Amino acid sequence: MGRTRNLKLEAVVQEVGLSQSRLAARMNAVAAENGASELQNVTQSHIARWIGGTRPTGRAPVILAETLSRGLGRVITLADIGLTPENGAAQQDPGWSVDTLTTLATLGSADMDIARRRVLAQSAYSVAGLMLPSETWWQDAAERARTRKPLSQHTVTFEDVDSVREMTVFLSRRDQERGGRGVGRAALIAYLRTDVAELLVGRFPSDEVRRAMTSAAAELAYLAGWTSFDAGEHPIALRWLTLATQLAEEAGDAPLAGHVLRAMAHQAVDLKQPAEAVRLAEGSLSGRRYREACWREKALLGVVHARGLAAAGYKKRAAAALLQAENDLGRASDGGDEPARVWFFGEASLAHETAAALRDLGDLKGAEREFKHSVRTRRERFKRTHSVTLGYLGDVQVRQGQLDAACATWQQALDVMTGVQSGRARETVVQMRRALSPFRNRSGSPATELDAKARAVLAAD
After folding, report:
1. b/e per residue 154-163 (b: at least 16 CB within 10 A)
2. Looking only at Cα atoms, what is the longest distance across the chain?
3. Per residue in 175-185, pLDDT tens?
4. Mapped to the 3 state alphabet, what secondary structure does the chain carry?
5. Percent of the residues in the chain that have a pLDDT greater than 90, as a whole number
6. Whole-angstrom distance, CA of residue 20 vs CA of residue 27
7. What confidence tier does 279 reach under pLDDT thresholds 50, 70, 90?
8. How many CB atoms lie within 10 A of CB 257?
9. Three-point CA angle 297, 298, 303, nearest 5°
10. Which of 366, 358, 293, 369 shows the shortest CA–CA distance to 331?
11. Beta bridge partners of 203
């Protein structure tokens, strides 16, 4: 029995207006973003076979749908291209229209289940998921939360809020020091989906208590998203960050909503989506989100905005944003009037992000200077970020022809990485090996020994 030609896919491919070979190249790039190494060698013949009726396997359908969505500037579902899953499962949507408590229950449960977590992690990081809801949605968020019916007899108190905030601070510090993978993250998700979820459906004696508890839950959901981002599980991270934004808006906590949008912008920069990063960063700086933020948080929002502008090629605007972030950080207080979520952001962090922006603008000497400044001023216990900074520093050094200096820097990075559980740190090792490949077979080259150590680090991880 012959295959049936996929006319839906053929029509969408024709609409996008790319040759099959160019579409394959774009699909390879989207696959690389999502860590789908098995799909980074798609060719014109694959596209032709899929149009001819051969069904793509694994993650290929969702990667293909995402590639076509980006090409057309609108969401293309699996049904639109005739590739609805055979088990009838629906393609995941960004979740803005779903009740926050429903999202927390379903996402938390899926995140804790190994098989379902694998499905989440292997879906595509989608630019459709970065589309923010309408202005009406933002205006109505707090009212929706106020009118939600309690499902528990427990009366929530400020002591409950303090307990959640204390746990968040503890888990945040562990993430900064050791990375987002491993036992700490599992504990975070378990606590969020059980204790915190039960508090959110309790009885609130006042709207002030409701807003405080919802804000505390939002910050913990943000941390779940950030640790997923650090672990390299980008689709899961996006869903947690979306939930965190929703909860922050329900709490009326504009600075926290800005903080989460800033994280989404940071993720977009890292995944080579500069236009989306700029849009999200500008959202984080909008109205009360920036106006009511403390100076340290304003600096953090501003420097990520600068990163997006730099990645998008807006040199003058990026320089102005960096200067503003530096000025804002200079006005920050060391007192106890700042939210715990920005405790880590200081001179070393600003230098790291500034260096990344300069690197993206092509100023490798400036990037090297700022990365070195970050290394000098970083507190020793921040091993995860320190190892990433060293990885980036080695990269800009080798790109300037400084092989010996880069090898020394990368040697230090691998030493610092001991005990760190981070997908971002691991990615710097992958990039390190890629950069060393032209040199590792040269007689007497320091790259040979370093590459062997890097290979061992990846194998152990």
Report:
1. eebbeebbee
2. 74
3. 877 776 666 78
4. CCCCCCHHHHHHHHHHCCCHHHHHHHHHHHHHHCCCHHHCCCCHHHHHHHHCCCCCCCCHHHHHHHHHHHHHCCCCCCHHHCCCCCCCCCCCCCCCCCCHHHHHHHHHHHHHCHHHHHHHHCCCCCHHHHCCCCHHHHHHHHHHHHCCCCCCCCECCHHHHHHHHHHHHHHHHHHHHHCCCCHHHHHHHHHHHHHHHHHHCCECCCHHHHHHHHHHHHHHHHHHHHHHHHCCCHHHHHHHHHHHHHHHHHCCCHHHHHHHHHHHHHHHHHCCCHHHHHHHHHHHCCCHHHHCCCHHHHHHHHHHHHHHHHHCCCHHHHHHHHHHHHHHHHCCCCCCCCCHHHCCCCHHHHHHHHHHHHHHCCCHHHHHHHHHHHHHHCCCCCHHHHHHHHHHHHHHHHHCCCHHHHHHHHHHHHHHCCCCCCHHHHHHHHHHHHHHCCCCCCCCCHHHHHHHHHHHHHHHC
5. 51
6. 10
7. very high
8. 28
9. 100
10. 293
11. 155
User: What are the b/e assignments for 391-421, b being 16+ CB within 10 Å?
Assistant: bbbbbbbbeeebbeebbebbbbbbebbeebb
Nearest-Å Rg of the Cα atoms of the chain is 23
Q: Comparing C-alpha atoms, which of 284, 203, 287, 293 is closest to residue 245?
A: 284
Within 8 A by CB and 6+ apart from 182, the residues are 421
* C-beta atoms surrounding 206 within 10 Å: 10
Question: What CA–CA distance (Å, rounded) separates 42 from 28?
Answer: 6
- The angle, 0 to 180 degrees and rounded to 10, between the axes of the packed helices 207-230 and 158-178 is 10
Question: What value does the mean pLDDT take over residues 219-241?
Answer: 90
Predicted pLDDT of residue 305: 97
CB 372 within 8 A of CB 357: no
Name the residue with tokens 């502008």.
309
Please tell me the distance from the alpha carbon of residue 165 to that of residue 213, in angstroms, as a whole number.
Answer: 9
Binning pLDDT at 50, 70 and 90, where does residue 91 land?
A: very low
Distance between CA atoms of residues 163 and 217, nearest Å: 11
Cα gap 256→245, rounded to integer Å:
8
Q: Which of 193, 321, 320 is nearest to 265 (CA)?
A: 321
Asked whether the beta carbons of 426 and 458 are under 8 A apart, the reply is yes
Query: Which two structure tokens, joined as six digits, stand for 82?
Result: 């005739």
Query: Tokens 């995944």 belong to which residue?
Result: 271
203 phi and psi angles, rounded to 5 deg: -95, 135
